[in-house]
Structure formats: structure tokens, C-alpha cells
């Protein structure tokens, strides 16, 4: 994996776990933040996508989930896993990169997740939904499920 992906993952974790600084940072340096669109089909066959839908960064369940992911940035990188935080009342991010409102709306519509709901959805490299949860999930459980997938098995064999 290249350094920019590692940096993005590190940023994602630090941003996700410090909700107070998100507001402060976003307000003060609007020019520095570049919004981009996020499209699931552009990730197909490149990355697995882990979508975390939540009402806001203040949502207790969302905070629990981000804590469960905090210690596992390397596991995300090893598995080509893009973390997308889809928040109703706060900024939404894909691997630390701010994503625009229309991308957020498209993701909510596609997966039918209401703004008030918490949901985790794992999308495989083939674009199919591999799991959907309404309560926080340990990163290790997600990693175990990915590691059992035929495509991941093949990746592990070819990298060793």
C-alpha cells in the first residue's frame, strides 16, 4: 500500500475519534478542505467499502463504533478497505477525504438508511453487500469475514 492511503486511514481515525476538532477544523480552514464526490462503482474491483451511517458525530453508537475501529488502521489497509462515514448532520468522509452532500444522499438512498439510523454496511470488491449491522461491530469480526472471502484468500496467497 502506498503512503497516501496510510495517511488517509490515519487521518480518518484521528478525525473520527475527535469529533470536537472536526467542527473547529472545518470552520477555520474552509479553503484547505476540498470536497469530492464518492461513487461506489468507482471502488468496484479496487477496494472493499465499509459504510458507517449515523445521525451525527455525537451519536453514542457511532462513537462506540469508531472506537472499535481506532486500533486497526493497518487491518483496513491490508484488506483494501475504505472507511466511509456517512453522517446526517455533520461532514461525511471517505478515508479522511470530505465527500459532498449529493454523494451522501446517493449512499443513503441506495442502501435505504434513514438519517436517524445507525448502520454498518460492508460492500465487497464485487460491489455486493457482504454484511449489514445495526449495532457496533468489532473491526476484528469484519476482518475475519473478509479474510474468509475467496477473493481475499487469493490476495493473501499472492502477497506471501
- Counting structural domains, the number is 1
The number of strands is 6
**Order of adjacent strands in the largest pleated sheet:** 4-3-2-1-5-6
Radius of gyration: 15 Å
Describe the structure.
Mean pLDDT is 83; it is low at 1-32. A hairpin with a 4-residue loop joins strand 2 (81-87) and strand 3. The protein has a single domain, classed as 3-Layer(aba) Sandwich (Glutaredoxin), CATH 3.40.30.10. By secondary structure, it is of the alpha+beta class. A six-stranded mixed β-sheet has the order 4-3-2-1-5-6. It has helices spanning 3-16, 19-28, 40-43, 60-70, 73-78, 101-111, 139-147, 150-159, and strands spanning 48-54, 81-87, 92-94, 97-99, 119-123, 129-133. The two termini are 14 Å apart.
Short description:
With 160 residues, this protein is an alpha+beta fold.
Give the helices and strands, then pairings:
Blueprint: H1 3-16, H2 19-28, H3 40-43, E1 48-54, H4 60-70, H5 73-78, E2 81-87, E3 92-94, E4 97-99, H6 101-111, E5 119-123, E6 129-133, H7 139-147, H8 150-159
Parallel strand pairs: 1-2
Antiparallel strand pairs: 1-5, 2-3, 3-4, 5-6
Domain DUF4174: 40-155
Protein name: DUF4174 domain-containing protein
Keywords: Signal
Features:
single chain, 160 residues, alpha+beta, Glutaredoxin, 6-stranded mixed beta sheet, 6 strands, disordered N terminus
Amino acid at each position: 500500500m502506498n503512503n497516501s492511503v496510510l495517511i488517509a486511514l490515519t487521518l480518518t481515525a484521528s478525525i473520527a475519534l475527535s469529533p470536537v476538532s472536526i467542527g473547529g477544523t472545518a470552520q477555520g480552514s474552509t479553503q484547505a478542505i476540498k470536497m469530492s464526490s464518492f461513487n461506489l462503482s468507482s471502488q468496484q474491483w479496487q477496494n472493499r467499502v465499509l459504510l458507517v451511517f449515523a445521525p451525527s458525530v455525537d451519536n453514542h453508537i457511532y462513537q462506540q463504533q469508531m472506537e472499535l475501529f481506532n486500533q486497526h488502521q493497518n487491518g483496513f489497509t491490508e484488506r483494501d478497505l475504505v472507511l466511509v462515514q456517512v453522517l446526517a448532520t455533520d461532514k461525511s468522509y471517505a478515508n479522511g477525504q470530505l465527500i459532498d452532500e449529493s454523494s451522501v444522499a446517493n449512499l443513503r438512498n441506495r442502501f435505504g438508511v434513514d438519517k436517524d439510523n445507525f448502520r454498518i454496511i460492508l460492500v465487497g470488491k464485487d460491489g455486493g453487500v457482504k454484511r449489514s449491522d445495526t449495532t457496533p461491530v468489532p473491526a476484528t469480526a469484519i476482518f475475519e469475514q473478509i479474510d474468509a472471502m475467496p477473493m481475499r484468500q487469493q490476495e493473501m496467497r499472492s502477497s506471501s
